[in-house]
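Question (not urgent): is this output format expected?
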Amino acid sequence: MKIESQNSDDTVLKELGARLSRTRLERNISQAQLAQEAGLSKNTVERLEAGRSVKLESFIRILRALGQLELLDRLLPEPLPSPIQRVQLQGRRRRRATGRRERPQPGEQAPWRWGDEEDA
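Got this back:
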């Protein structure tokens, strides 16, 4: 089954569980072995494969134990700068932050001046 946006959360969880179960079986690993490699209880592996919710950390541990953790990078790739940001930077990286200009706080007097300075 293809996971699509119109699928319910329960349907997506069941499909993910079924896929993890098939991956585990293709590698000829028992639920108990996978649980031990992932540092989880066998019940957690059973819950995930049954399509019930588990902590995200548990899901990550199971993917790592199955050698599938790198697939998460395709799920949520690192965002690239927008085309406008790329044009503004023109291949350069920012080297420093702009300084803050000090302004007097409300009720505070501005610094004293001679009066013959040119305003910026």
